[in-house]
Amino acid sequence: MLRTVIATTAVLGLATGCAPDTSAPVKVRALVLSSNGEYTPQEVELKTISDIVGLSGNVADLHGGARIVLDFNDPDLQNATTPESFANALLKESGRDVTANYITQDGVLWPADFHTWNMVTTYYNLERAFDYFHDVTNIPTADFKEPVRTYYFPEFVLPDVDKDPLKDNALYFSANESFLILPFDQLQRAPLSINAGILAHEYSHRVFNLKTYDAQPFPVALSTWAAGGSSPGANILKSFDEGLADLHAYGSTCRSAHGCDTRFLSTSFHGGKFGSVTDDRDLARTDRCMTQSLRDNLRNMSLDQFSGYEYVVGTLLASALYQAGEATGQRDVLLRSIVAAYDDETVATPGLQQLTRQYLTDQGKFTLAVAAGAIITHVTDLRLKEAVCNELMDHLQIPRDLLVGTNNPNLCPASAAGGTTCPPLGNEG
């Protein structure tokens, strides 16, 4: 794939360059997944761009050359008393605006070097993720706040993990409300920023933070619940965040030319030691079940100890919801219902934000049934609600009597009986 880009750039180097028009929409070539599973240069429109050279616009603002260090032994971090001062302490080098290089051919801008290809594709994929959440899940434009600072190839250092800057990752970093597009090393086939599904996954984390955590850089529920020993509430929140991010990433692929892809990770995590990542998180698998050991870990581990398991529990949630949406033909309806469940002040149908606030002093009451109930109460179609209930009872092993709406008519209907795929674990809440 990279050889294709280099060859294309070499040919276009013979064309005549000129200062590009920066007014949106801008026609430009980006690396887009084609129907044959390869990333190829395709003409796209950037609809929200205001500076095509600096790659900034209403959705994102790319910034290069930054150095971000999260070291809890850093005196600057220890002395930070506000989210703003903490974010400033993280940023050891602020970096600069990026500069993209283009060649114009037939009114279309062609990136003239690899980093421009990568940055243009990054902006395009963030714009597609924005469009998905705006158009499919009905989030108003104003709710997204300002464009997201997107650090392109920063040095991101976590001394507790590795003294060297991290690579091969793309993430939403709530501590300074930014996306980090890290340099790639081993993931050469399709660097993560080129994979639209992966950036939609990261954009989902931003939406979850905006809605469930009220845009807090350091979510109160997570920090409060993680302060003690076992942290079941925090573990559930992290699992929901990861699982729903995969589900939304899948939903975003359904708007692409190559169609819905439950294995959207595969073009980046491909073969060898990476192949298992795709298999483990393929939403189309129907054999995923909560186990006793996983449920024990969810309940008894601290948030640090639970690290890694949030993907396992998250995949149980995501695949269960995927099956419900596909079986009823109401994928988009379900995706909208899920986002509506993040934040709702209605007494009869509280959202996840409101439930975490309600149980802030007793996270043991924020159970899987309570968290799942936030989604269930926002599904209004009876057939879809029944399907969601059946799948969650089965794959997450949530006891039926905790979800059937005897006291809350917005929960599961009496017709919901669970499923038979997974072996029962008992009637514990």
Model description:
This protein is an alpha/beta fold. The protein folds into 2 domains: 1-193, no CATH class; 195-429, no CATH class. 38% of the residues lie in helices and 14% in strands. It has 14 helices and 14 strands. A 5-stranded mixed β-sheet has the order 8-5-11-14-13. Strand 3 and strand 4 (56-57) form a beta hairpin. Helix 7 packs across helix 10 (309-328). It is globular and about 65 Å long. The N and C termini lie far apart (49 Å).
Number of helices: 14
Shape descriptor reads globular
Largest sheet: 5 strands, mixed
**Cα distance spanning the termini:** 49 Å
Give the overall average pLDDT: 91
Give the beta-strand count. 14
Strand content: 5-15%
Q: Strand sequence of the main sheet, in spatial order?
A: 8-5-11-14-13
Low-pLDDT residue spans: 1-17
Radius of gyration: 22 Å
Helix content: 25-40%
Classify the secondary structure makeup into a structural class: alpha/beta
Summarize the helix and strand pattern as letters.
Answer: HEEEEEEHHEEEEHEEEEHHHHHHHHHH
Number of domains: 2
Keywords:
429 residues; alpha/beta; 2 domains; three-stranded mixed sheet; 38% helix; globular; disordered N terminus
